[in-house]
Amino acid sequence: MIRPIDLELLFTAFAFRHAKIDNEQLGRAVARMESHGSIADTMVQTGMIDEAKRQQIDAAVKDHLRQHHDDSSASLAAIDPLPFPLSLFDHLLETHAATPDALLTYQTVVPEVGHNVVANPNAKQRVASPNSSMRPTLTNTPGIPARYRSKRFHARGGLGEIYVATDMEVHRDIALKEIQNHYADNMASRQMFIVEGSITGSLEHPGVVPVYGMGQYEDGRPFYAMRFIRGKSLKTAIKTLHSGEPLFPNGRDPSLALRQLLNRFLDVCNTIHYAHSRGVIHRDIKPDNIMLGPYGETLVVDWGLAAIFQHDSSRDADNLHDQLSEQTPRFESIRLTKDSEGKIWGTPPYMSPEQANGRQSEMGPSSDVFSLGATLYTILTGTIMYPGTSTGRVLEKAKHRDAVAPTQINPSIPVALAAIVEKATAKLPSDRYQTAKQFADDLDAWLADEPVTAYRERWHERLRRWMRQHRTLVTSGIAALLMGIIALSVIAALLSTKNAEVAAQRDTAERNLIAARKAVRESFVQISEDERLKAEGLEQLRMKLLKSPEPYFVEFLSQNPDDPRLRLEQAQWRSLLAAIIHNTQSPTDAIKQYETVEKNLHDLGEEFESPDLALNNKNEFESLRANTHLQLATLYDITAEFDQSMNHARQAIAYADSVATADMASISIAASTQLAKSQFTTGHTDAAITTLDEAISRRSSAAKRFSENWRLRLNHSLAERAECRAAEGDVLGAIDDWKTALSQSDEIEITRENEITVLEFRARVLVSMARETGNARLRNPSLEYAEQAQKIAQQLVNRHPDNLSYAELKIDVENTMATTLAIAGPNPDPNAVRNGLTKGIELYGQLVNAHPSVVMYRYRLLKSRLNLVFADLSQGKAPDEIIQDATGVLSPVEQLAHEYPQIPDIQVLFAKTLINTAMLSMWFEDESAVSEIKRRFDVAEETLDQLDSLPNRVAYTEVRSSLYSVLGRLDQSNERWADAAGKEAHRQQMMEQFPDTYWNVPFPNERKADSLDTEAQYRFGAGQVDAGFARLDNAIAVRETLVRDFPNEPVLRKNLATSLRDYGDWLKEFDLENAEENSNAYTRKSLDVIKEVPLNELDNAQLLSIVGDLVQLATISSSDGELETAADQCKRARQAAIELHRREPTSQNLAYQLLVENLLIGYLLDLDQDVDDLVNSLHQTVTAMLNEYDHSDDVRDTAMLAYRQTAAHFHSKKNYEQARYFLSEAYKISERSPQRNTIAINLSDAEIRLGSFLAGTERSAPLLGADELEPLSYYNLAVNFALAIRALQNDAHLSEPVRHSLSTWYQTNAIKGLEKAADAGLFDDPAWRSTFDADADLESIRETDDYREFTKARFPQEPNRTDP
Questions:
Q1: Residues of the signal sequence (predicted)?
Q2: Which run of H or of E encompasses 454?
Q3: Which of 47, 96, 128, 350 is most buried (CB neighbours < 10 A)?
């Protein structure tokens, strides 16, 4: 017999758990299943499990079903994720006549009546089996219209299910849709179903399925008949699309299959636009709800969540809102008003943010447009916008539109098409297409290779499109240019002839030549500067066009070698060619070309000093000469030939200053900036700042004289000075410079020629600001700057995906953000930094291979490799592999340092690599490497000593101070505590060399506080306790100042709180006077400081510390009678525990939460405050924990403890009813627990006190015969029977003989319990004898002879004792 698919999947999940079945075995079992068999049968038949194990698994499945009210769908949804891939069941799914997509997918979220959110949002929604035994068939349903005859089940949606039936009147197949069984008796669900049928039937459009009629069964369940759609869903078509050829095989042009699917999608947009015109929005557009017929039909189905929005009906007489206005009661539930706020309907991966946040009144056509855009996203990428492992996670992403760009998933998607998706799925409704028609029009325009409104085309893109559409004309245009050059050669030949017959023509030819030379000159200038030809893919065309005048110059100069104007034109041409070589080849090749230009200009020098030449020619000459030296200065800086670079920069300044024009002043300032850059790179920071100060002063005084392009270039002087100031420690001054540069760049008019340049400048400035503020431990501004830089960098990469420089910029931004969060963020993603470094290493490897002469690419590659070593270390990589990786970095860094001793940054990297590799060897106790460790320290110190002749930078001081820190650790590892403390003190002295401006940011202060903490530990190790506490006091003072100066930086508060807490721990460690009291005082201070930090800013260790500290303080407050304080402390601890479990849902973290809630219940009861909500929360938490962790022994023990403690609180308040409830819950799960007997005794106590003395004593009596109970348990049994006597006396329903018989039996058992307690030694403790004497619960037996005999026998030697 075929079992429902849900049960098959449940059995398999528990087989994985109980029989250790693996995927390979499961695959074999599914493959061998017979059509009428089950997975259980197959596993038994193949020997994977035996019959006993099968029964055990069946029992576990039944128990799990019972916990979920025998709902197989809910049971299956609770196991998330499944322990096996669902694809293994494809064969089984086909056997059960249901499409695989319908069985495990993101389903439409439909809130339960009375609730606003999805139950269990962290579980993936699953659809029940189409073969569920609860589903009635049409033939068995009372009242089924005789007109329809059922054939088979077809599909199930969020609310209804569809059967294929035959319409007997017209003999055609129709789709008969009825409400699902578990919604059938819910009136609100029925109402929704009826509305769906009504709306679907009211929308008359080729893209909406026609409804033939509606009705209801005898029991009132509704149904409706509609056209049966043959075909496939868009979801299936998307899968097919992505399993075939590439979507864009020829660059921009879509494949035929994609073009056909996009045309179908246009039909969907038009259908939705029609619905909007009728005042209806769909609210659940997704590929599953779009059907593609075999004859070109495209239909939007499942209008079950459709709603009526606030539509201006005056514009449209044919409006569904008006048609339905008379049916207000029926349709009120689907009108989007403020009353519908908070409810979440739809499918999370396709929801707009307003839909995911439940802001129903804000929904309108643009919400459906978003879902259409999300559907287009899936078509183009083959995946959903918000991937996730559960509906809850996906829903959270949808609320904030947390999605990656489609081009990141499929880089071949054209930028304009991606822009259409981005606009349709914009976070704000106002930023989207306002109608589905606008969306369709833009997509249609893209398919027709026309401009789209979502994307502003660059000129080079317009050029490419124009070239695609005019290929013949483009080809002929290039030919015409070449013919023009050939014609110039003919003119040159004509001018060189000496034939007298043509002498009269020479004047005319010369005039023509001048005009022709001007035309050629203007043409190659235009080719050089035209933005359209600077785009990726057109470099070769640009180079070819620029090289085309070369034969003309060679030919003509051979005839006119002394013409200075012609030689100047040739130099100008070569200069433009050199610029392209710089961009497309290598700096070395460009240097060769510019040196040729320089030589040409040097040879022309005397000739251009002639007074016969026009002034404009002289100015052209001087401008070209100054600019050539500027370009050479730039290129030599790139290739690390800094003396050459600075020499050319100074020459450029001298030549530029010789001519008083705006352009020459601009060149002078740019050359000064380049000079300063080389000075800074070689460590001469003071000289660089002096140079830049002068350049900035000149730029400010003459800003209005410069062109827009030059004004942008001149902002580089501000940016460069900011880098210098940051290196010297003036971080805040650097930020001011960068902000000024950004502000001035905002004033520049953006044109097509300069837009990319402006964007790149802004992105690089912002990433510098993010990096330096992050290094300074100013997390919030760092992340703000990084986010701005990331947006711009992404724009640049999108426009120029092949540009490695922009790719490097993007990776730099991402790494800056990841590093900032890793240093100062709560629970950083351990993979984020590592992944970013890996990307950077790959990119820098490409850059080094492409440009081996650019030394800084090698520097950045090696720096990234060193950082990766420590990222791997934090990820737990094996020590021997870490040492090997670090040593592998050291060798090339050492080689680089020897090659470029003039670059301080490289020397600092060398010193850091030496220190870090030595430190790693020390950490991993590599005793064989002790001599090598010392050698590396010595070399590092020598390397840093070489920098003493240069102006100090904070990086030098920081590395040198870290050297002493590591040396101190080396002493500490050998227990030379005093020496270690001395090294750390020397480290602090080194830090005093930091400039005053550097102390205005947190980083050096944090470093100093860390060093003081470390020195304190060493002092303690050396026995210098007072000195150690003095260092801790100083560290706390530093951190308190930081918190005061930077109140909005959470990491500073967290560090101060940690210091205060550690101080308290040290007090207890040395057991000083009043240590406990003073330690608690420091703990309170710590908690007060960290109270201002949101819980989501704390890491898990801090949350756990907060829970423990607050619980400890609450206990102290309670013992001091400060119950309100104790309750407040427990409330804070509970919030921290809840946050901890939210991040790490483990049984241990749940145990912390339960512990805190138990304490809080007790304190609130003592304060006579309501605890109902808290008690319900605790009970739900325990239930969830038992279900989630499968009743393991540890989990059961935790649950029992929680129930028992809660019961004890209620018992102490004489609320025996609640006490009995929680004890009975504990007793249910105590079968295998040694605490079972104790729980039974306590439960009996509660029952007896509530008057159920028969049940209580019946449970207690057998325990008297047990020999393994604790002494207190025997005593409590005695109390139970004594209480039963008192309860018996108050019961008027029993006859006197029965009462007497029971009383005698109870008395005997009470004395027996006391005897056993005494035998076990309970009363050996005098305190217990006092408790025994005062126990009011024993009053009912104190006057009996048996009791007197017991006390006389057990306490004969107590002369002061008086029997009651």
A1: none
A2: none
A3: 350
